[in-house]
């Protein structure tokens, strides 16, 4: 368990003794596809690090419509901020998109350790600030940008410095993440392939023309 904690960037500033203390309050969980890790509104007693698999974080509207807030990838922590909520409850539901393994880290123990580790406090603050900025950027994109702009920006972010990427979930889930309909996502991906900008096989994509994608993202509409 301690070896896994060594791989968590958020905990990098903890010394060996602090990490050993925390390891005694960490649980390993395996999830089947579709299994709920925690539900929105339930007491938050732990935050999590995803070892393998993929986790969908989502909210439901009053009408039962699902809004995907994030798709968590391996090596990522999530739900850290709940440790400082009053009362500590999960604001979203977490569900496994495939067979997954997580570490559940006790929030009370983590909060106690933070008092003796200012660098970890700063790391947590920087991480949460980055996520807030990402959410603000996403809100701006969903209110001001077109569907094709959101899709291209998402693909470029997924690819990073590489030209190859894999969608982290089904097209239906990715569409919900981008606040567009699944049929719209399929149509846009088909159009990008037709223009020779991407290649796609199931969930695997290759970006063939990054400059062309950036130019298209800046266009107000997708012209034939």
Automatic annotation (TrEMBL):
A molecular-function term among this protein's GO annotations: DNA-binding transcription factor activity
Gene Ontology cellular component annotations, sorted alphabetically: cytosol
SUPFAM superfamilies: cAMP-binding domain-like, Winged helix' DNA-binding domain
Domain HTH crp-type: 145-211
Cell wall biogenesis/degradation keyword on record: no
Keyword flag Nucleotide-binding: no
Annotated signal peptide: none
The protein's name: Crp/Fnr family transcriptional regulator
InterPro entries noted in UniProt: cNMP-bd_dom, cNMP-bd_dom_sf, Env_Response_Regulators, HTH_CRP, RmlC-like_jellyroll, WH-like_DNA-bd_sf, WH_DNA-bd_sf
A Pfam family of this chain: HTH_Crp_2
PROSITE patterns: CNMP_BINDING_3, HTH_CRP_2
Every Cyclic nucleotide-binding domain range: 10-114
Keywords: DNA-binding, Transcription, Transcription regulation
Organism: Acidihalobacter aeolianus
